[in-house]
Write a structure and sequence with these properties.
Layout: H1 17-38, H2 42-47, H3 49-58, E1 65-68, H4 75-83, H5 118-131, E2 138-143, H6 150-159, E3 166-172, H7 183-193, H8 195-210, H9 220-233, H10 239-242, E4 246-252, H11 256-265, E5 269-275, E6 299-300, E7 305-306, E8 313-314, H12 315-326, E9 331-335, H13 345-350, E10 355-357, H14 362-374, E11 378-384, H15 385-388, H16 392-400, E12 407-413, H17 428-432, E13 439-441, H18 446-457, E14 463-468, E15 471-472, E16 488-491, E17 496-500, H19 504-517, E18 522-526, E19 529-531, H20 535-543, E20 548-555, H21 560-566, E21 572-577, H22 587-594, H23 598-614
Parallel strand pairs: 1-2, 2-3, 3-5, 4-5, 9-10, 9-11, 11-12, 12-14, 13-14, 17-18, 17-20, 20-21
Antiparallel strand pairs: 6-7, 8-15, 13-19, 16-18
Helix pairs in contact: 3-11, 5-6, 8-9, 12-18, 14-16, 19-23
The structure holds thiamine diphosphate.
């Protein structure tokens, strides 16, 4: 079948089992082909092809509503809803989003990117439906990694007490990005491996063999089957049943007959436990336990070789190597399910007793760290900037208020690019700056990153070290403990001061050099600490009575610049992100669109200083 010609999912209604299997084969080929060129979430999507097809066959979207959790696994949904033709633009500027996107299609009811929001949001849809006395199904599709997050328990707590029709599909591939962790994972393991399960499976097969289900509407026979299958599960005591949610499963998520039977039965609050194989259909991603194939860049589909063009070493890797170097018996490195992305797998293997993967549980990670710190340990929480948004209260109410020695290694700060709005690391400074006791620092390069980490380990305070996704040239050198709050003057200049930090320091050198050619001389300051500030240096800067430019890869409101502006009468001009969400694109494309690329800043500073002279 020509996948690109699919306009909507109506054609599925008439398909028989054989045709459906052929379609899943074609979709997998298409996905491997397209993702090998653009990059994207490969394994999660290969795992849910049959499940998504059967959902579209059984339900009538968009009248029925489906919310994909995270929505990184919604590619087959995009294909079936007429977006296959746009896959060559996947995750590119102006192109198809890697997640559900309401502006893309009437079939996308919700948007995510962060995990574990689907149950609560879908419940909102279901309650609104009941209030309006409407009749349609609401489905939340969530993975076994994402259902481990605390948000889901808040939702389940309410869902279990309702009798409104609401369908949860638990897509269990026994994997988060890498192997899933935790007691809930163990519970799902137990369900899967229970002897009763096999008994149930055989019985189900027997029943299925008696009825040719594919294509038939929900009939009386089916209702009877539902009753007899249901009976097989009674007394299992699985957590969902205990919470008042009908549980069906585990079922084979690659078997169309099974999928159709169970999806058609779903009424009332029900959880259907579907077992799928992450990465199915591509030999390199099948059985990948490390998460290598979860999210990929472009790759050679025949050899499985990644085609990365970027060279250098990432801040994540530099920090992780430094953690290994500085490791003591009292240090504890914590990750909320991001060991692979944060380059912590080597450390985890070397120091299993000093490493904790808490699963997708950012808020828990922070409180756990606080408890460890109050008991004399030195916790380092490695966390992506955008995922830290979840933990604001834990930082304010717990860590900072108790002035605990918790180190936050805030990864993916600034523009992250292809994942778009939900993943840009542009808010953390805004929410951290007003918090008392916090020390906040952003290194300009690898050497400074390691020095800041050493400083954080040796400073008894909440300490955030922020770093970007960039890859760098890095030659290790002896790290030093930096005076808290110290800035560094990098170039001399009498006409103005340019204050910046992080990756923008490099861009600023270019700006300063270009201005020199125009006979404009600027003092460049590396404000490596955003809190506290270097008050001595700040006094000197303000006394010059010359314009002060602050250049930041962060939201303008709540930026370092806005703080500095609030404490001086000098002219402070801030170049930062205005009041908007930053869409997907490469980092340079995003910066250009935001007017934050080096050339635009150079032009702006030049214009500003010339008009200042003329005034
Ligand atoms: C709050 C939050 N933390 C971390 C992530 C990064 N992340 C994206 S997908 C994923 C794994 C999800 O696992 P699961 O729900 O089992 O889905 P699968 O990919 O296995 O289908 C993680 C940790 C995220 N998107 N949101």
């Amino acid at each position: 079948m020509n996948i690109r010609e699919i306009k909507n999912p109506k054609f599925l209604k008439k398909m028989n089992e054989e045709e459906l299997y052929r379609l899943s084969y074609d979709i997998r080929e298409f996905l491997i082909d397209e993702i090998s060129k653009t990059g994207g979430h490969l394994s999660s999507n290969l795992g849910v092809v049959e499940l998504t097809i059967m959902l579209h066959k059984v339900f009538n979207f968009p009248k029925d509503k489906i919310i994909f959790d995270v929505s990184h696994q919604a590619y087959t949904h995009k294909i079936l809803t007429g977006r296959a033709n746009e896959f060559d633009t996947l995750r590119k500027k102006g192109g198809l989003s890697g997640f559900q996107k309401r502006s893309e299609s009437i079939y996308d009811n919700y948007e995510a990117g962060h995990s574990s929001t689907s149950l609560s949001a879908a419940l909102g849809f279901a309650i609104a439906r009941d209030m309006n006395k409407e009749d349609y199904s609401v489905i939340a599709l969530i993975g076994d990694g994402s259902i481990g997050n605390g948000l889901c328990y808040e939702a389940l707590n309410q869902i279990g007490e309702l009798s409104t029709p609401f369908i949860i599909i638990l897509n269990d591939n026994n994997m988060s990005i890498s192997e899933n962790v935790g007691a809930f994972r163990n519970h799902l393991d137990k369900i899967r491996s229970k002897n009763e399960y096999l008994k149930v499976k055989n019985k189900t097969k027997e029943i299925l063999n008696k009825v040719p289900i594919i294509g038939k509407p929900l009939s009386n026979t089916l209702k009877k089957i539902k009753k007899s299958i249901k009976k097989l599960y009674v007394n299992d005591g699985f957590i969902f049943e205990e919470l008042g949610i009908d549980y069906y499963g585990p079922i084979n998520g690659h078997d169309y007959k099974e999928l159709e039977l169970y999806l058609k039965m779903a009424k009332k609050p029900v959880l259907i436990h579907v077992i799928t194989e992450k990465g199915k259909g591509y030999k390199f991603s099948e059985n990948d336990k490390t998460g290598t194939w979860h999210g990929v860049g472009a790759f050679d589909k025949d050899t499985g070789k990644m085609l990365s063009t970027s060279t250098g070493i990432s801040f994540s890797e530099i920090i992780s190597n430094a953690l290994i170097k500085f490791m003591t018996k009292d240090m504890v490195v914590i990750t909320p399910a991001m060991a692979k992305g944060a380059c912590l797998t080597k450390l985890a293997l070397m120091y299993p007793k000093n490493f904790i993967d808490v699963g997708i549980a950012e808020e828990h990670a922070l409180l756990l760290a606080n408890g460890l710190s109050l008991s004399g340990k030195i916790p380092f929480v490695s966390i992506y900037s955008s995922f830290l948004q979840r933990g604001v209260d834990e930082i304010i109410h717990d860590i900072a208020r108790m002035n605990s020695h918790v180190i936050l290694g805030i990864d993916r700060c600034g523009i992250v690019g292809e994942d778009g709005e939900t993943h840009q690391g542009v808010f953390d400074l805004t929410f951290l700056l007003p918090i008392p006791n916090m020390i906040i620092a952003t290194p300009k390069d690898g050497v400074e990153a390691v020095s800041l980490l050493k400083t954080a380990i040796n400073t008894n305070s909440p300490f955030a070290v922020r770093y970007s996704k960039s890859k760098l040239d890095y030659t290790p050198s002896e790290e030093e403990i930096l005076p808290i709050g110290s800035w560094k003057s990098l170039t001399k200049g009498v006409d103005a001061t340019l204050i910046t930090y992080g990756d923008f320091v490099i861009e600023s050198y270019t700006i300063v050099e270009k201005l020199k050619k125009d006979n404009i001389h600027i003092e460049l300051i590396n404000a490596r600490f955003q809190k506290p500030i270097d008050t001595k240096m700040w006094d000197k800067i303000t006394k010059k009575n010359k314009p002060i430019f602050v250049y930041e890869e962060s939201m303008r409101v709540g930026s370092l610049g806005s703080y500095l502006k609030s404490i001086t009468d000098s002219k402070v001009i801030i170049y930062a992100i205005l009041d908007e969400f930053v869409p997907q694109g490469t980092r340079s494309e995003c910066l250009l669109d935001l007017g934050l690329d080096a050339n635009t800043i150079y032009e702006n500073i030049k214009r500003e200083l010339r008009s200042n002279k003329n005034a």
